[in-house]
Recover the amino acids of this structure.
């Protein structure tokens, strides 16, 4: 590599829009790597890398030690629970996420789960295919109209699902201790400061908070018991925010009507996972933020994030650990 060129490593799965953006830069060498690469195999490749974009690859002190020239890490997404943020900060390496590039997509997925669960989409489809036409009257769908949704987390995604639920003429409750009540009210929603008190009111609970020590297991057995037996839970945030054994117990015992899950504690989720055996559970493979359009937006945002740091003008609103820039 020429002395003045900078080397970036990017997953082979990065959308073409990201690679096309890099093609305009003669001072950048872009190197693809497999998305499922083991960290031990990644280490030898990091010795002369200046920036890396991560999909699901964990990144911590061993990777930083293997990358002495590293200046920036970018996530192709908004979650960063697999990245050791304190380790990056100690070495003054900023971590950037893609901002709002996939926020609309996740919000649409959450609404899709809510609608499909309420309208019994999978069950009704199966009735037609199995010649069970008249079974439709045994358990009718329910409306979202005039129902109450409780949104946990009122950031880039939570604010967007709120708008969509308001458009469905729902009552929208918001629990987020880090957002001012005035801002929540200004968005047409009702702020709630006590999650336990709000849960019995909810017909739908949708989670849009980051995974961290404060939110790990925030929806546990006790809180699931507080919910209506007719309520639905949707998790498009991160596995571990919901206690999976407790959720299975609530769903299988009739204490909760159904759940839509895009994320699990262990991913890929094992085929024999107990939740997958329940008919009132909808699942998807951690793809809530993925669409034809969003993967292009995320690829471009991730590449721009990397280049901004190397060019000396970091996109500060996308930097998670801003203290690394100081």
């Amino acid at each position: 590599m020429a002395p003045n060129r900078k080397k970036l490593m990017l997953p082979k799965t990065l959308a073409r829009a990201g690679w096309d953006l890099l093609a305009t830069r003669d001072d950048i060498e872009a190197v693809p790597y497999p998305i499922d690469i083991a960290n031990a195999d990644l280490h030898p490749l990091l010795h002369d890398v200046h920036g890396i974009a991560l999909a699901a690859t964990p990144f911590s002190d061993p990777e930083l030690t293997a990358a002495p020239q590293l200046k920036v890490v970018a996530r192709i997404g908004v979650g960063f629970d697999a990245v050791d943020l304190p380790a990056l900060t100690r070495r003054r390496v900023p971590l950037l996420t893609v901002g709002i590039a996939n926020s609309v997509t996740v919000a649409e997925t959450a609404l899709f789960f809510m609608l499909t669960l309420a309208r019994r989409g999978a069950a009704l489809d199966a009735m037609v295919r199995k010649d069970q036409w008249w079974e439709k009257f045994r358990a009718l769908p329910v409306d979202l109209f005039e129902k109450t949704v409780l949104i946990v987390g009122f950031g880039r995604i939570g604010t967007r699902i709120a708008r969509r639920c308001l458009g469905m003429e729902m009552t929208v409750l918001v629990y987020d201790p880090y957002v001012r009540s005035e801002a929540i009210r200004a968005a047409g929603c009702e702020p709630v400061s006590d999650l336990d008190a709000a849960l019995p009111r909810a017909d739908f609970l949708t989670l849009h908070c980051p995974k961290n020590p404060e939110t790990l297991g925030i929806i546990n057995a006790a809180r699931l018991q507080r919910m209506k037996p007719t309520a639905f839970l949707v998790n498009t945030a991160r596995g571990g925010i919901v206690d999976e054994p407790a959720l299975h117990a609530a769903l299988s015992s009739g204490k909760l009507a159904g759940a839509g899950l895009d994320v699990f504690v262990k991913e890929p989720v094992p085929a024999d996972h107990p939740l997958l055996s329940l008919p009132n559970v909808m699942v998807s493979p951690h793809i809530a933020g993925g669409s034809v359009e969003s993967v292009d937006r995320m690829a471009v945002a991730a590449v721009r994030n990397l280049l901004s740091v190397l060019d000396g003008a970091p996109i500060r609103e996308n930097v998670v650990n801003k203290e690394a820039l100081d």
Remarks:
- Residues 6-101+292-325 form a domain with the Rossmann fold fold (CATH 3.40.50.720).
- The chain has two domains: 6-101+292-325, 103-283.
